[in-house]
Every structure is written in C-alpha cells, then in structure tokens.
C-alpha cells in the first residue's frame, strides 16, 4: 500500500495554516472583485453562489479524508479539521451574503424563505447542524465528549447530503454539475456504510497473513 512520507513536524503546522489561507482565498478574491466593480453580471449572486459552491466542495473534501486513508493508505487526517472548519466558514459566509447582500436584512422575507422555500429550509438545516460540529472541533471537546464526539461528528454525512440536495433543488433543471456533486456525496455516504465490513475484511486478511508468518502465500 502506498504511504507518503510524513512532513517534518514544523512543516505540518505550517501546511495546515497554508490550507486555511488557500481555502479562504476564493472568498477574499471574489469579494475584492465585487467590491471594486470587476464582477460582470450580478455581483451579489456571483458571490453568494461561489460561497455555496466552496461550502459544498469543502464538505466533500472533509468526507474524502477517511476513504483516501482506507483505500490508499494516505493519511491526511491532520487536515480534516481545517477542511471541516473551512466548510463551516463558507456556509456561514454564504448565509450572511444571502441575508445581508441579497435580502438586505429584510427579516420577514428571510423567515418566509426559510419556512416556505424547500431548498432554503434544507440549506438552513445543514447550517444549523454544522454549528455544533464547528464549536466542538477542538481537543478540549474531544476529551470532554469521549465517544459522543465521534457520534456527533458523524452528522457531517447528513449535512453534506443536505448541501447536495439544497444545490439540486436550487435550480430549475438539474444539470451535470448538480449530478456530479450529488453523486460524490452519495458515493461517500455509501462508503461510510460499507466501510466497517471493508475494514473487518482487511483485518482478517492481515491476521491470516500473520498466521502464515507474515509470508504472502505462494501460488504453485
Ligand atoms: C450546508 C449548508 C449549505 C450548502 C452546502 C449550500 C450550498 C449551496 C450551493 C452549492 C448553491 C448553488 C450555487 C451555484 O448555483 O453555483 C447554493 C445556492 C443558494 N443557497 Fe445555499 N448552501 C447551504 C446553506 C444555505 C443557507 C443556510 C441559506 C440561506 C438561509 C442558503 C441560501 C441559498 C440561496 C438563496 C442560493 C441561491 C439560489 C439562487 O438564487 O440561485 N444556503 N447553496
């Protein structure tokens, strides 16, 4: 199985900060273009959509860490918290752009949207569920919550599913982009369901090889 050499310790922390900086770049750059009148068309919609797109991308990247380790032996677990938090920051910015720039804080319109437009209701549910995950993404919460922390953070799967569904329902006609994102989320949720069986099979195979003295069986 392929194993990437680990980065030296000082570079590990730096690479996580670099990921935060790189991850926030699309939002900062597009905001700058919008604020300086360089976005062609409807700048508010472009910005709002970009934030939604990156929110979904970071949710998918967060979910990809575990299958990449299981299937290819590449351990990028140290980046998972940053990816999950970037997803949260993008959803929060997407929500703020919708409330402030799009709806100009017209609370009655926003409340009506949340309760009457299905795709917004689903997006809102995803956002609300993401808040406890963001708040408990720290060592103290992991220690305090114990096994409850793992159960809580499994919510990332329904959250990603809500995000993909919200995206599909936000358009009049579902096109290739929506299908790709929905397909990726479906595959990752599917992987989560078959993962315990896959890992048990892998463990069994390793034990059998161990029983053979670590030798791979020879074919005649
Ligand atoms: C997990 C949470 C969420 C995710 C992953 C998400 C993602 C997305 C995506 C990918 C789009 C389509 C962007 C495009 O067309 O390129 C979108 C559109 C949109 N989202 Fe969200 N969203 C979430 C939560 C929310 C919330 C909480 C609200 C507001 C309460 C919201 C309001 C909207 C609106 C108004 C649109 C644009 C509809 C339009 O005018 O075309 N979203 N979102």
Write structural notes for this entry.
- 78% of the residues lie in helices and 0% in strands.
- By secondary structure, the chain is mostly helical.
- The protein has one domain.
- The longest helix has 36 residues.
- The protein starts with 8 loop residues before the first helix and ends in a 9-residue tail after the last helix.
- The C terminus is likely disordered.
- The structure holds protoporphyrin IX containing FE.
User: Which range does the strand content fall in?
Assistant: under 5%
Low-pLDDT residue intervals, each spanning 5 or more residues:
216-220
Count of distinct structural domains: 1
| SS content category | mainly alpha
Could you tell me the number of beta strands?
Answer: 0
Mean pLDDT: 93
Q: How would you characterize the largest beta sheet?
A: none
Instruction: State the end-to-end distance.
Output: 24 Å
Q: Give the distinct bound molecules.
A: protoporphyrin IX containing FE
The topology string of helices and strands comes to HHHHHHHHH
Number of helix segments? 9
Rg on CA atoms, Å = 21 Å
Overall outline: globular
State the helicity in percent bands.
Answer: over 70%
